[in-house]
Design a protein that fits this description.
five-stranded antiparallel β-sheet; mainly beta; two-stranded antiparallel ribbon
Length: 106
Amino acid sequence: MINKGDIICGRENLCPVTMLFEAEIEIYELLEHKPIISKGYTCVMHCHTFADEIVVKDIMSVTEKNLASGLLETKDAPKFVKAFNTCRVRITTKNPLAMEKFETIP
């Protein structure tokens, strides 16, 4: 029986499954009691039919607008990320998630 969210693939070419992945995310608004994202931040991620609690394991980089010049600046390994910035993070999930690499299926 096939259910919503199931993945169909050939036996000789199975879809990779992971609980740790790297993602580029855009932060819009954050909760008033959690105004920044840092290592260990927990929240719920919704991706198609997948919804699960996740933990931010590492922050790899952040791209933010410099208020003085108006130019975008990228910082490696920041301690935290504020709202309205883009960041690259490592995320862990509680349940396995079927996922292809971006290089394989952009």
